[in-house]
Amino acid sequence: MIADVVAIAAALLVRVAPLSAPFIERHYSNGIYPTIDRVVRAITGPLPFTLGDVLFFVAVFFLIRYWIVTLKRAGTRRGPVALRVLLRTIAIAAAIFVWFEASWAFNYGRVPLADKIPVHNERTDEDSVGRYADHVTDMLSKLADAAHAEEAHATDETFEAILVPRFNAITHRLGNVATFAPPRIKPTIFQTTMQLSATNGFTDPWTHEVNVDSSTFFFERPAIYAHEWGHISGFADESEANFISFIACTTSKDPLVAYSGWVLVWFNLPSGVHLTHPMGKTAYDDIMAIRARYTKQVNKQVAHAQVVAYDTYLKSNHVKAGYGSYRLFVRWLTGADFDRDGLPIVVREQTT
């Protein structure tokens, strides 16, 4: 009983008394978190399977068994026993929540990129975004054929070798002190669920393992990898992970990796954006192929449920835009200033 109360109290304390953003930035994201990540991935990384999948089913199995066995043994005292079982279940959920926060999710509270990257609001209006969308179209058209010429060499190892230097450059610019090794991409038993819900990639916050939908096209994967790497490196917000992925990819000299970044931003442009530039055939066919895959695989009910659940989850972790945060990085792309290396100009003093 004491352990249950302590677990619940700890969870409530974490929830109602959040730490300040500068404190988390300095002492968690750039303090203890890199060590936590190294230790966790030293355990989970070498495994040929996704430990997070196993832990999920083990937890569900033992929780159901605990309820059934305990209530069967209760006899005539089933009511009071059920209350104790409920308390223990809440305590277990509280302990898992504390683990979730300590293992990774405190990163939601770090200094947001919105406070690090000055944005010129006059460059984020409808006309500016429209001009930027035309630029995205031009880049897709320019890079598509060269990207496809690399298909035979499009392996995880190739992507990693090309992406890592640019990825480290952008995460360091945005406030990270430590360098994070890319996580191994693992298969998952939830592959079908990912397809039904239109989930291209997933980072497990407890085990720091990364899963990617195996049906994604080779030209999508670099941007998906960099997005999930962004989460692993301590940028929990979806818009920030998208921004990191885009910069890491599009500042690369490799046509395929750069093309992947432009594909990412294309699917995050506002739905009503006005385009005036035509798109080349290869790029157009790629965009249509992605849409066709979604149409074939995605279940609207499952996808809607996933959006609602994830929207609630994000807002509960202080992401005000919720699921819509995925697309907010376009504002930085149009309104921020960038140096000669394509990295954003940041306000350093906001990160300490």
Please explain how this structure is put together:
The chain is mainly α and 352 residues long. It folds into 2 domains: 2-108, no CATH class; 112-351, no CATH class. Helices cover 62% and strands 2% of the residues. The protein is globular, with a radius of gyration of 22 Å. The mean pLDDT is 90.
Characterize this entry briefly.
With 352 residues, the protein is an all-alpha fold. The chain is built from 14 helices and three strands. Helices cover 62% and strands 2% of the residues.
Widest sheet: strand ordering: 1-3-2
Can you give the helix content as a percent range?
Answer: 55-70%
Q: Count of helical segments? A: 14
Instruction: Give the helices and strands as they follow along the chain.
Output: HHHHHHHEHEEHHHHHH
Count of DSSP strands: 3
